[in-house]
Specification:
- This protein has 262 residues and is α/β, with parallel strands linked by helices.
- The protein has ten helices and ten strands.
Length: 262
């Protein structure tokens, strides 16, 4: 698959409720190796993870990037968006592809989903990198401004054009935004009790300057997980955290691959 023109090679699967969802499968490695599931942030799509996917593909790893309901080339479906639903959808994909054990790395909404998957499937998830996660609206900064920001997105021609460029349902733009807003303001994203169920090695990545997530919440989440490392960057904004992982290295190999696979 070409990373430069990856959207042209989108694949689809159907969830248990019949919703058509998109994913990308970079089969650069041995199909018997443990794949890495990369999960993008809310209001984003697979393009957020393409630079990382291109970089780590050099290490012979199979990479799969799903797109959530309503995001990218996926249909929205008829259900309320929840992080539990995201986990069910990704589990459907893994089962469709006959993948048992896997590692995962996610950003923002993908970070929450990665942690929930590790709690839900402790015997299948072998490693997690969770970049800028939160547990609930209390972990978020300026939550009172969120409604205004979403209302502004409804009239944002740039974001609307990005949505239209890949969405199979151009008429559902406002419904999509309303559902993501409801998801972000829902009472619980992940519980401490779920974090305590994670058995795999885990890395939580955050920043002391994240404009959306309170710094102390990263420490609190890491404390709930038995085998968890914490990396707090200084002076980095929320959206700058993901690609920083490519700049880390261990034993002259890519940090992300080393942490998850080795």
């Amino acid at each position: 698959m070409s990373f430069e023109n990856f959207r042209n090679e989108v694949k689809y699967y159907s969830t248990l409720d019949g919703t058509k969802l998109a994913f990308f499968d970079f089969n650069s490695g041995n199909l018997t190796d443990t794949p890495i599931i990369l999960m993008h942030g809310g209001l984003g799509n697979a393009s957020e993870m393409i630079e990382i996917a291109s970089f780590i593909s050099n290490y012979g790893v199979r990479i799969i990037i799903p797109e959530y309901r309503g995001h990218g080339s996926s249909c929205l479906g008829k259900m309320m968006l929840t992080y539990d639903l995201y986990c069910l959808d990704i589990t459907d994909l893994l089962n469709t592809l006959k993948i048992n054990e896997f590692c995962t790395a996610g950003f923002s909404d993908g970070a929450i989903t990665a942690l929930k998957l590790a709690a839900l499937l402790p015997n299948r998830v072998k490693g997690v990198i969770s970049i800028a996660p939160d547990r609930n609206p209390a972990d978020m900064k300026n939550i009172q401004n969120l409604k205004f920001e979403f209302d502004s997105l409804k009239n944002d021609p740039v974001y609307f054009a990005e949505y239209l460029a890949c969405s199979p349902e151009p008429g559902k733009y406002e419904e999509y935004l309303d559902l993501v807003y409801h998801l972000w303001t829902s009472a619980s994203h992940i519980e401490n009790e779920e974090l305590a169920k994670i058995k795999s090695k885990c890395l939580i990545v955050g920043s002391d300057s994240d404009e959306y997530i309170k710094t102390e919440s990263f420490y609190q989440m890491a404390e709930q997980i038995g085998n968890c490392e914490l990396k707090i960057y200084e002076g980095k904004l929320h959206g700058e955290l993901t690609n920083l992982l490519m700049n880390l290295s261990a034993n002259k190999r890519n940090f992300l691959v080393d942490f998850l696979i080795v």
